[in-house]
Automatic annotation (TrEMBL):
Protein species of origin: Blepharisma stoltei
Protein name: Uncharacterized protein
Pfam families linked to this entry: TTL
PANTHER family on file: TUBULIN POLYGLUTAMYLASE, TUBULIN POLYGLUTAMYLASE TTLL7
Keyword Transcription applies: no
Keyword terms of this UniProt record: ATP-binding, Ligase, Nucleotide-binding
Amino acid sequence: MEKEAKRSKIIFNVSNTKYEIIKHVGSNVFGWILSNSPTDSNWDLFWTDNSVIPDRLSRMKPHQKINHFPGMFGIARKNCMANNLNKMRNIFPHDYNFYPKSWVLPSDLNEFKAELQQSSKTYIVKPEASSQGRGIYLVKRLEDLRTHEHCIAQRYLQKPFLIDGLKFDLRIYVLLSACDPLRIFIHEEGLARFATEEYQNPSRGNLDEMFMHLTNYAVNKHNPKFVQNEDPEHCDIGHKRSLSSVLIRLEEEGYDVTTLWDRICDIIIKTICTIQPSLSHFYRSSQPDDVSNGMCFEILGFDIILDHKLRPYLLEVNHSPSFTTDSQLDFKIKERIISEALNIMNIKVKNRREYEMISKTLSSNRIINKKSRQESLEEKKGLRDEATRKNDRHSDKHCGGYIKIFPGENDDYYQQFLEAARELWSDVTAVKQKRQTETARSSTPTAIRPISV
């Protein structure tokens, strides 16, 4: 009886997530069977709070889906994102000017020291792999630099846009439903996280005032002044508010929210363009026979801050944004973000049978001679194109609060960034291959010549 139930329902493996909201959505919203066994391979959907390596994807069955793409570290790690965005800024200085000038330490240490000695600006230093505000501090002079190991330094935005005298940032939720071809959605709802002390321009006397300078919820919730929003029907109070309530307030005060939203969407697309080639490489090399382009998906948390002129700047990208639900507001928003993403991914029991049939068809067409092999490649391309059209039709009908931003009206404009990213990726892989070849040669023992007598 239990086996029959599993055959007729989605099996959702939640053994590697700490978030109760994930389990709630699977069980209570969709009615799926939850599996808590880390060794169980008989699942349709696997949710993990950790990154996914290519080997894990390569071992997945055609009908299975997982909530991360291998290679997302390219924007999820602060140092990697800074490197990738810096490279694109060198090529497109006016198009990639949406993030603070950044230095990756220790490799850029000398350049950053020179910057500190010549400038009176303030800089923020962040550990390259930390989260929730851990290890972050501000510097104005060289002697303020506590460490230069494995961190990034950025120019601090000294004139942020303020609401009620407080600095804040926006957590924008983005769904990447496919990587080749690319499919990007932005959700209409999100969060605004506020600092808990009134903002003052950074000075020698307040550099350590983290409740003033940082907007991280994990930091500010420890301030006795922190006000939790316990009423999801009134999303415009407290130190964590809904994204929509902030946008409504800005619009009521006469600001151009439409242009702001368009700029945020532009930032998201351009950022993901920087890693599309690597995502595609890892995906295709791990699942060369997959035609669905839908075995992986990712809910990303883009952190955006606004300057005093309402221009958005990218602070960081979270590949595992927190789904902790400390308040009813949290619960209401995050339940939507997760459930509507899963609706787009079209996770159904019949997918098992469909993908198994496709897999069998592809296997039967693998013939040794070149002509048949070419026919198989053409057939696979046709199946991929049809799967993409099918996925697009489904997402258009089931997007909920998600809005597709790529592909869209400005595809031709973004193609130049995708092409540049492919060239950069090709250069990186060429260097890696050269190093591997040199390493292999150096490790090969040379023949011992006989000694002449």
